[in-house]
Amino acid sequence: APRRRKMPTNGIHQVLKIQFGLINCESRYLTAESFGYKVNASAPSLKRKQIWTLEQDEADSSIITQSDGRWALQSAPHRRFFGGREDQLSCFAPSVTEGELWTVHLAMHPQANLLSVSRRRYAHLSAHEDEIATDSNLPWGFKAGKLAVKDCAGKYLAPTGPTGTLKSGRSSKPGKDELFDLEESHPQVVFTAANGRYVSIRQGVNVSANQDEELNHETFQLQIDRDT
């Protein structure tokens, strides 16, 4: 069984929500059926019903990792393995065969840091961009969950003046003024109608496709309803 680790964090939030799909030996995804709390392995692609969320138990593991990266899923009380094809899935196999191995397809685009276990330092690209060195004390400049941005001259970005204009060049060490929180934001989009005009709310609350240029009134925030 794999060594137990704490759930990973992204330096800002407490725990990363790891979502993924599971692919069997026939290149089909494990799928949650709409009714009856049943599962099958018939889907050819990753969509909403094929996405699963990892809930990690610090005391025990039901995932047996293989040398090729695939997972074997083991029943905690019965120690049998889960697998099968199409709608013939079960958790009765006493040992792992091809039918009980699952390939993990991440349903996210993670950003990760590499921490050397022996050196206790983070890996990063060198200034000359010709090698990766494992000598950084901080991942990506994070400090107490904060982020500092440094320019090519080694100076940090900070807000200055009455309007808080962002400039670099004043400090070569990150202080309170140079630290930022990195927050997730919804994507912003513009919509173009069949007439080639941008959809806009320039006239008020009414939406019309009558603008030739893309400005604030033509920009919309895209929010995903994960339940649908």
UniProtKB/TrEMBL annotation:
The UniProt GO MF terms for this protein read: actin filament binding; protein-macromolecule adaptor activity
Question: What InterPro entries would the database entry show?
Answer: Actin-crosslinking, Fascin, Fascin-like_dom
Record domain Fascin-like: where:
27-70, 142-182
Origin: domain of life: Eukaryota
Q: What is its main location?
A: cytoplasm
- A Pfam family (short name) is Fascin
Q: Which GO terms describe its biological process?
A: actin filament bundle assembly; cell migration; establishment or maintenance of cell polarity
Keywords for this entry?
A: Actin-binding, Cytoplasm, Cytoskeleton
Q: Where in the cell is it found?
A: Cytoplasm, Cytoskeleton
GO cellular-component term (any): cytoplasm
Family according to the record: Belongs to the fascin family.
Please give the name of this protein.
Answer: FSCN2 protein
Q: Which organism is it from?
A: Ibidorhyncha struthersii
Q: What is the lineage of its organism?
A: Eukaryota, Metazoa, Chordata, Craniata, Vertebrata
> What is this protein's gene name?
Fscn2
